[in-house]
Amino acid sequence: MTPSPRKLLGRNVRMMSRESVYETADAIEVESREGYEVTRKRVLYEEVLLVTIHRAVGVPFVVSTALAAALFGSIALILLSLKLESGAITFGVFALPFLLACIFRLVMKVDSVTVFGKRSKAVMRFTVRKRRAREVYGRICARAVEVQRAMVPREPEPIAVDEPPLPPDVSAP
Amino acid sequence: MPLVTRDYEGPACPRCHARLTSDWLHSGTVICPDCNKPFEATAFKPPSRQIEVVSVAAALTPDGANACANHARNAAVTNCSRCGLFICSLCNMDIGTGPYCPSCFDRLRSENALQPAATRFRDYVSMARTSMIAGLFFSSMFLGIPFGAVSLFYGRKGFKQLREEGRSVTGLVIILIVASLEIVGGLVMIAVLIGALMIMGKK
Which residue in A68, A76, A78, B69 is a FRET match for B3, CA 20 to 30 A apart? Predict the structure, then answer.
């Protein structure tokens, strides 16, 4: 069997998990990675119940990056007050990426597209490409509608019944 | 400690993960009853899958109809590719790898012989890539040879995996080329070292 080609729709990278979501002909394929072990599950278009899109800040990310920035920043400030400029600059450089990541997330937020099926779900998160999130949402909805509409059995067309010709009038002379 | 994950229970609020009952499944803007936050949704009512089962009586032809081995009243539509059992459309476990009866399907799946049915597997391409990168880092310590060899070993398995899935092998080919160069580089370094030692010994 030649498997149907698949196309990457999006990813869902969190602190403890990493998922890649692909589009195939008949389903959305989710690959979760734990080290070198890959777990694959599918959300069939014919079983899609709900597709959602929403924008959120992502509190755990903001809190963790803010804490890291605050930790390194406070060390940098302490060192600066002790007139240890080189150490302060080093810790300031450590703090900067966390601070930038925190501000970036607060400004941009993250768009999430979630597909709920009967037996499984798929989540995609888009931090930068907002238009792509909307596009993926529309694409999944359109494909689910198409597949589910094709599953509905069509009603048989009524058979056209012509009026049978009347027998010749035998009573006529 | 294994990560505790919740089993999937059906549609839920994408923000707070509270279960949504059927009353809340509608298209448009939905406000979660639990967290009171909005999200945009499109709801579907998927029709149940219809499998056409033909009874033996209905399928009677001048040649006769074979009954399913598991359902005596159902007419067989095909036979199992592995054991040859006559099976009806209810028993036909065809996922694109040919028709199998349920018991053969279970057996093949447990043996991991049905690639499309595999839900858990090892990513050999990533293993080959990691070995290749480790080989690059430690090539100055003559460890490019073993790491390159390991990369080639996993790369061969990864190549088979990608071919079975019909995915592009371009990235893997680059990994294999670099791994081969690590081995060649390591051998050249050893040869140069031996040569230098021999020259020094002669002097």
Answer: A68
